[in-house]
Amino acid sequence: MKKSLIILLFFISISETSASIKSKIIQNLKNTDNLIFNFEQNVNSKTQNGNCVLSFPQKIFCKYNLKNNKILVSNGKSIVIKTTTSYYLYPLKRTPLDLILNKKFLLKKIENLDERIINNKFVNFKFFENDFEVNIFFDFNNYNLIGWQTTDIYQNLSITFLSSIKKNQQIDNNLFNLPKNN
After folding, report:
1. Three-state SS at 12
2. What is the pLDDT of residues 52-109, one digit of tens each?
3. How sure is the predictor about 171, in pLDDT bands with cuts at 50, 70 and 90?
4. Which of 76, 130, 135, 174 holds its CA 20 to 30 A away from the CA of 99?
5. pTM
6. What's the CA gap between 38 and 29, in Å, rounded?
7. What Cα–Cα distance (Å) separates residue 13 from each residue in 8, 59, 68, 110, 122?
8. In a 3-state reduction of DSSP, which class is residue 176?
9. Which of 129, 130, 147 is nearest to 139 (CA)?
10. Domain segments of the chain: what residues?
């Protein structure tokens, strides 16, 4: 009897800790208007890095540390990837970033998903939506968004790690104006 009670208390404790982590992630995300961060991105084993400004809802500006001056910009409706020699314009809805940059959508998904705790360092939520597989990662200790992994409709794997994260900074909203094609 005593052994059963100890086991029950152990599982209740684990369940409460898990619920507590999830609720803290939700509250932290609710309180996040924007993020400024460095990133490392791996797409099909090709690594690139740079820095980004993300503003909810659905705006992002990323400058890559590449010789071709690559930038990625979303104004909330469209996304542009521009280099010195190329210009690609897509509807944001055709990309996994549409889901990642949509805070209301993420909050609803997280509320209804079970989290996976990885090495007491990361908290992961995984979902499938609009032909995309998305894994979102949060820091186990401070509950900040620290990355995502997506698989697109062409089965391309993209992994993005965030570092040097600053939350709710003053930002210039002109960053999210789509650049013109040269």
Report:
1. helix
2. 999 999 999 999 999 999 999 999 999 999 999 999 999 999 999 999 999 999 999 9
3. very high
4. 174
5. 0.85
6. 19
7. 9, 39, 52, 21, 19
8. helix
9. 147
10. 23-176
Question: Could you tell me if 78 and 88 are in contact, meaning their C-beta atoms sit under 8 angstroms apart?
Answer: no
Q: How far apart are CA 79 and CA 73, in angstroms?
A: 6
Query: Does the domain spanning 23-176 belong to CATH 3.30.390.60?
Result: no
Could you tell me which residues come within 8 angstroms of residue 53 by beta carbon, excluding any fewer than 6 positions away?
Answer: 34, 35, 36, 60, 61, 62, 171, 175
Per DSSP, 93 falls in state: G
Comparing C-alpha atoms, which of 95, 56, 106, 102 is closest to residue 72?
Answer: 95
- With a CB cutoff of 8 Å and minimum separation 6, the contacts of 18 are 115, 117
- Exposure pattern of 6-30 as b/e (b: 16+ CB <10 Å)? eeeeeeeeeeeeeeebbeebeebbe
Any idea which residue has 């995309």 for tokens? 132
Q: How many CB atoms are located within 10 Å of the residue 58 CB?
A: 23
Q: Coil, strand or helix: which one is 115?
A: coil
User: Residue 146: how many CB atoms within 10 A of its CB?
Assistant: 20
Q: How far apart are CA 88 and CA 81, in angstroms?
A: 5
Which DSSP string do the residues of 98-165 spell out, in sequence order?
HHHT-HHHHHHHHHTS--EEETTTEEEEEEEETTEEEEEEEETTT--EEEEEEE-TT--EEEEEEEEE
